[in-house]
Amino acid sequence: MRINCITRPSNRLWTLGDQFLVSGSNFFLSILFVKYLGMESYGIFSLYWMLVLFGSGIQQSLITMPLYTLFTKNANPKSYLGATLKLQLLFSAISACASFLIIILIQLAYPEIKTLDAVLISLITGIYTLQDFLRRAFFVLETPKKALKIDWIGFGVLPFALMILNHVDLLGMSSVLMMIVFLKSISILLGWGIIRHQVNFELPLNVVRRSHWVYGKFLFASSLLQWSAGNVFILFSALIIGPIAIGALRIAQNILGVLNIFFLYLENVIPIEGARIYHESGTQNFKEYIITVSKRYAIYLVAALLLIYIFQDNILHLLYGSELDGYQWLIPAFCMLYVFIFLGTIIRFILRTIERNNVLFYGYAISAIVGLACVYPLLTICGLYGVMIGLFLTQIVSLTVYIYYLKFKL
């Protein structure tokens, strides 16, 4: 009998270690980028990276999330994994070409963007998703230690590479992108060397493509809407306010980003236990469980947010010097925003447990519509304050949809 890697304490520890590595690398990368290249360059880099994450979100809905569910159901896991790898290669090629076309269009608004950077970020979009597929395949194969091994190269080395480039006076936007391409490529080659004996390519690509589309089409639509609702204000702020605004927003997000590990922990604990209680003990016991754990983890979250708020000046000057001067108000604003994010996370756990994923889709859809309708007036009238108002607004709209359904439709 197969045992999910999350249930094994050693595998759970390696998985958590891998998440610490990835999150920690991204955190220190942002610090070094701002320190060496400044806020404006970091804002442009963040704009580039939004494109990478957009491709990653689509990949997760159409490839990796179906992989997690369908792998154990397949009679020939090696053939299925090989066919999924072929699907991933096709996706990586398409996403790289699409990214290049998008950046060329962005060049019309920002002619200072180099064509070389457009080529490099397009390569990164394709390579990033391929490397992510390999690391997640190791989780599916219950070997998270191997995922950690390739992530040391794909993520862990990056901050040190930036310091070396700066030391030899070769640091710039293009050189950073080249380094990311190089390290991700090495990580992919290592991952392929490890996994190649566990795959074969006998299964036709179309078989997997159809099954993944059937499973992931609503996840795909939700992913598009979730990305739109969450990033429309940040994306338009680059066009209306400028890249420095994005740099400031991303710095604030990175400081609060240490809490993402907390949210990933909730993702690995509450839905699993909640589903067990719901199916074995009924709705009332499930409701009591959700209320109990929500109160407990809310206390932890509020305590962490208060610490960040109290020591925000020390944190900012220690990590970023004076780069965020004039934007310090973003930290308490994001602290408040994370309260709404926590509430939304808990309610999404409930809706997923009672199998009402369609409500999540409606919430994302309405939130995206409201965001798109309000983005231009908010940014032109309120500037960066309008971005934060918009982020609060999209959270509140989706929460309102979820709460309305839970209160009046159940």
**SSE ordering:** HHHHHHHHHHHHHH
What's the Cα radius of gyration? Answer: 21 Å
Assembly classification: single chain
Sequence stretches where pLDDT stays below 50 over 5 or more residues: 1-7
Mean pLDDT: 84
Helix content: over 70%
What do these coordinates show?
This protein is an all-alpha fold and 410 residues long. The protein has 14 helices and no strands. The radius of gyration is 21 Å and the shape is globular. The protein starts with 8 loop residues before the first helix and ends with a helix. The relative contact order is 0.11. The model is unreliable at 1-7 (pLDDT under 50).
List keywords for this structure.
mainly alpha, globular
Question: What is the topological layout?
Answer:
Blueprint: H1 9-70, H2 77-109, H3 115-140, H4 144-156, H5 158-167, H6 173-195, H7 205-240, H8 243-256, H9 260-281, H10 283-310, H11 312-320, H12 330-353, H13 357-382, H14 384-408
Helix pairs in contact: 1-2, 1-3, 1-4, 1-5, 1-7, 1-8, 2-3, 2-7, 3-4, 3-6, 4-6, 5-6, 7-8, 7-13, 7-14, 8-12, 9-10, 9-12, 10-12, 12-14, 13-14
